[in-house]
Amino acid sequence: MNILGYDWPRLHAALNDLPAALLFVTVLFDLAAWITKRESLRATALWTLWAGVVGGWAAVVAGLQAEDVIDHGPAIHEIMEVHERQAIVTMCIFTAVLAYKLLRRGRLKPAEEGALRVLSLFGFAGIIYTGSMGGKLAFEHAAGVPTTTLQAEILDRAKGHHHHHGAGADTTDDHDHDEDHDH
Fold first, then answer.
1. Closest by Cα among 12, 90, 9, 80 to 49
2. Is 175 contained in some domain?
3. Does 165 map to a domain?
């Protein structure tokens, strides 16, 4: 699969940040609307919820497809399963909140609003946990990096890369002035 130059893992990576951010701020807008009683914040919360739910499900679909095509062993697979389950649960929470709000057409009783707010807070925690697991996959296990690429990178890193600057050297742009640098 290749959509505009993206395979499934890259598409998942491209799609997952914006919906997570939108759902994150949805909860903040909703809390702010509740505290301030401002209708504009309530409307903003609903629009960001819409966009976050649609985008979030696109990220989930891409992630499910990516799972089948990336190189991985048992350690990555276990974390991937936790990440997948948590993403689906989180999206179900926000989808249920959106569906209920649409069903009630903004005529929510205070108890309903409170229940949805609590449910959204569970979704908020779900976003953080899902992102944490995704970060662990990417940054601790190099999920999505083909094995041959990872092996080449390990060999390249073993060669070393050093930064050396003499006294008074301009260090504003290390790569233009010195080819040999440490990381």
1. 90
2. no
3. no
